[in-house]
Amino acid sequence: MKVLMLNTLYPPHVSGGAERSVQILTEALVAQHTKVVVVRTGSSASPVTNVINGVKVVSLPIANLYWPFDRVAHSPLQRKLWHVIDLYNPAMRSAVARLIHQERPTVVHTNNLQGLSVAAWRAARAARVPVLHTLRDYYLTCARCVRYRNGRICAQTCGECLPFLLVRKRASASVTGVVGNSRAIRDHHRERGFFVNASVSSVIHNACLPAPVAGSIRAAALPLTFGYLGKLTPEKGIELLLDTFDAQKDRGWELLVAGEGDESYCQELHRRYATLEERNPIRFLGWTDPSEFFPQIDVLVVPSLWQEPLPRVILEAYAYGVPVIGSRRGGILELIEDGETGFLFDPRNPQTLGTLIDRLLRDRTLSGQLGQSALRRAQEYIPERIASEYQAAYRAVLASTWA
Q: Counting Cβ atoms within 10 Å, is residue 124 exposed (0-12), middle (13-18) or buried (19+)?
């Protein structure tokens, strides 16, 4: 079997967890003797081929106004035009069609398609190659991919995003099988009429590598160290987290915040919480490698306000034996066993987060107990297991195609 794996980015270019998830899956598939060629977007003027960890990776130039990951500020008009072109990009369809002709894959496996556009599906269909699509975000129903705006979840599709939904929903009829990296993200799309011709529909969570040093649960100590690892953006709930800790009367804790975000937003966070920084219970670390971050903390907090599909940071925490407090949003509900591998709280009632923090502060052995359960749960997400689930999905897609 040969798989043409499409994703907007691929390491070393990383914007979020999707790139890392696709890389881990790809390398696990290769280890199981499946041929995989990765297709990603790039900033060059012509296609570039590299070999990364034994995997052939083709970078396609985006036939659009700019490469959206160049860290260059673009005007609102440019950004809007970029999204209009990306709605259905015939030039990218042609580029993907050429690669399908060259590589002759058995299956085309698409993931995040920003920049490649859903026209890639039509290219595969024209070549009579079945498509398996993995849903990892809200790109198909939201121009910003998050369905969160002005401090609120977008329960309905707004007028600005409706054209994107309609065009991409129609294109999704070319997809043979669909996988959600969470039940929440899969059901979101199926309920809106996507993938009407998909004969395969399943949920496969992301894979996560084991920690370099497995089984190293931190001993109970003072202070209890909580951590946040991720982008510093409003929808991630970072302000809710900082406000909750700022209100804590028990000072037997510290909070490590790792991640980056918009420069002006980060400066505002530092200004608002300067007192906490001065007292040293909170430290902003900037970008930090997970292997350096998790050994420093006792509990991870994932305070997302949006319906996050599946935060891979939870899986990474489990691999290090770190329990997680997470909000009742999206795929987070599918990963955290309340009272076993961590706790869930309602972000509409921030006091519930404070109550859980108090509980952990009162019982210094609790985080270690939860951490042992988290470490056991991590075995469900080892790459070999997830790759085998995808192998089964590929076989099901092929069987339904030629039935």
A: buried
What is d(CA 400, CA 403) in angstroms, rounded to the nearest whole number?
5
Domains and CATH numbers, the chain: 2-206+382-402 (3.40.50.2000), 224-381 (3.40.50.2000)
Query: Which pair of structure tokens corresponds to residue 187?
Result: 């059901």
The predicted pLDDT at position 71 comes to 81
Mapping DSSP onto H, E and C, the string for 184-246 reads HHHHHHHHCCCCCCCCEEEECCCCCCCCCCCCCCCCCCCCEEEEEECCCCHHHCHHHHHHHHH
Nearest to 175 by CA among 114, 121, 100, 96: 121
Tokens of 180: 């959600």
User: Can you spell out the DSSP letters for 134-197?
Assistant: EE-SSTTT-TTSS-EETTEE-SS--TTTHHHHHHHHHHGGG-SEEEESSHHHHHHHHHTT--TT
Q: Give CA torsion, residues 145, 151, 157, 158, to 10 deg.
A: -110
pLDDT tens digits for range 133-173? 999 999 999 988 999 998 999 989 999 999 999 999 999 99
- Going by DSSP bridges, is the β-strand pair 224-229/299-302 parallel, antiparallel, or unpaired? parallel
Q: Are the C-beta atoms of 107 and 129 separated by less than 8 Å?
A: yes
Give me the chain's average pLDDT, please. Answer: 94
Q: Where are the beta strands (DSSP E) in 34-95?
A: 35-42, 48-52, 55-61
Q: How many CA atoms lie within 13 A of 398 on its CB side?
A: 14
pLDDT number for residue 218: 65
Asked if the model's pLDDT at residue 251 lies above 80, the reply is no
DSSP for residue 322:
-
d(Cα 34, Cα 165) in Å, to the nearest integer?
A: 33
